[in-house]
Specification:
Blueprint (H helix, E strand, L loop, with lengths): L10 E8 L5 E9 L4 E11 L2 H8 L8 H18 L7 E12 L4 E5 L2 H8 L3 E3 L3 H5 L9 H10 L6 E6 L2 E7 L12 E8 L2 H11 L8 H4 L5 H8 L20 H4 L5 H20 L9 E4 L6 H10 L4 E3 L10 H14 L20 E3 L2
The chain binds adenosine-5'-triphosphate and the ligand CC(=O)N[C@H]1[C@@H]2OC[C@@H](O2)[C@@H](O)[C@@H]1O[C@H](C)C(=O)O.
The site of the ligand CC(=O)N[C@H]1[C@@H]2OC[C@@H](O2)[C@@H](O)[C@@H]1O[C@H](C)C(=O)O has 16 residues, from strand 4 and strand 8.
């Protein structure tokens, strides 16, 4: 029996996201008609084992071949395992794992076969969210902004507000909630701010065998090397007018800029680079947001949060302050986007990915 997706009314969707920091898979449920968020449901998380992480990471930056296939197999197995517990939803939004992203060259690659997941789970799966946007000239990222627009309306924001996601890479969405439809010009401006946690994570791994700088404990004792910070800010990426997007390792050479520094100074400097990228991003916003709502793992780093508070001209708060879940926002975003795709509604536009006309990306696979 095939399971059709209702064309109108509120449906229940689960979103599954595996981000650039490779910690694990997030799954979160929400109810929506594709425009308004009705309510949020349960969520779950599945860690990757060190072995799985190694196999996935070996596929980073590659477009095809055995390493990519091996990474895809790990992604599919991990998602099947966690999504077994979510077979009661109307549909699933499956982001997959980005292995490579070069929208103006080879394209964008998220691995994991959504059609196979739909067959195995017996639930319709929406996947391959980014390809159509890239094929039509967009950056293919970030895609969470249409969901951020719905969140701004859900929390009753009455002035422009920014959502700042600090994962491996940073991305910001500026939202004008007075414009009801996200694809209308002026409602959204979104782009990647620069590297966020990825360079610090790489440094911690390389020097101390740690996955990340927990609570900024290493950076806290260090001094920011202003010369390295200036070199970083001289990168043409920051002056480029958005929309613009990044691959996880686009700034990998930043770790080289701090090679001669002590662990503490190097961590402080890389953390400051993340904050400085965000400060640069604010200059591209049409008007300053009333506040910046921080989501993603970086909001747990008090050293980073303090640097942001000092360098931005508006309040910077973890997104929990407005009642949203900063660990699950991306998974919720792909649940929301799945419903839009299934209903033929756009998921990106000029203000978010630079695509000329609004696009509804994604493939719908019905079991
Ligand atoms: N307590 C903490 N102290 C410092 N940093 C932290 C803490 N908790 C999480 N992080 C950072 O946040 C990262 C995970 O962030 P998140 O889960 O948002 O990334 P992601 O979703 O995989 O990435 P992306 O949004 O780029 O796809 C960790 O790798 C770590 O660098
Ligand atoms: C190509 C890709 O997977 N990009 C991710 C990555 O992680 C953060 C940033 O870079 C953002 O552009 C995007 O993810 C979020 C979920 C997005 O599309 O909005």
């Amino acid at each position: 029996m095939t399971r059709a997706i209702a064309k109108t009314g509120v449906v229940t969707a689960a979103g599954a996201m595996s981000g650039t920091s490779l910690d694990g898979v997030d799954v979160a449920v929400l109810r929506t008609d594709g425009h308004d968020i009705t309510d949020f449901g349960r969520s779950a998380y599945r860690d990757y084992t060190p072995e799985e992480r190694k196999v996935i990471a070996a596929g980073f930056g590659l477009w095809s071949g055995e390493a990519v296939e091996a990474a895809a197999a790990v992604i599919e197995a991990a998602h099947l395992e966690i999504l077994e517990g979510f077979k009661d939803v109307d549909l699933i939004g499956f982001h997959g794992q980005t292995l490579a992203h070069a929208p103006r060259q080879q394209g964008t690659l998220q691995v994991g076969n959504g059609a196979m997941l739909a067959d195995e789970l017996g639930v319709p799966v929406v996947w391959d969210f980014r390809s159509a946007d890239v094929q039509l000239g967009g950056e293919g990222a970030p895609l969470a902004p249409f969901f951020h627009h719905a969140c701004a309306r859900y929390i009753g924001a009455d002035a422009p507000v920014a959502f700042l996601n600090l994962g491996g890479v940073g991305n910001i969405t500026w939202v004008d909630p007075s414009i009801d439809q996200p694809q209308v010009e002026g409602a959204l401006l979104a782009f990647d701010t620069g590297p966020a946690n990825a360079p610090v994570n790489d440094l911690m791994q390389e020097r101390l065998g740690l996955a990340y700088d927990k609570d900024g404990a290493v950076a806290r004792g260090g001094t920011v090397e202003t010369g390295a910070l200036e070199l970083f800010l001289a990168e043409p990426y920051f002056a480029r007018v958005p929309p613009k997007s990044l691959d996880r390792n686009d700034f990998a050479e930043m770790v080289a800029l701090v090679r001669e520094l002590s662990n503490a100074d190097a961590a402080a400097t890389l953390t400051a680079m993340c904050a400085a990228g965000v400060a640069e991003a604010m200059q591209h916003c049409p008007i300053p947001p009333s506040r910046v709502l921080v989501t993603g793992g970086g909001r747990r780093n008090p050293v980073l949060m303090q640097m942001l508070e000092v360098s931005l001209d508006c309040p910077v708060v973890p997104i929990e302050e407005v009642g949203l879940d900063g660990d699950m926002l991306e998974a919720q975003a792909f649940a929301y986007l799945a419903v839009r795709v299934a209903r033929g509604m756009p998921t990106s536009c000029a203000g978010t990915t630079g695509v000329r006309a609004a696009v509804g990306g994604g493939t719908v696979s019905v079991p």
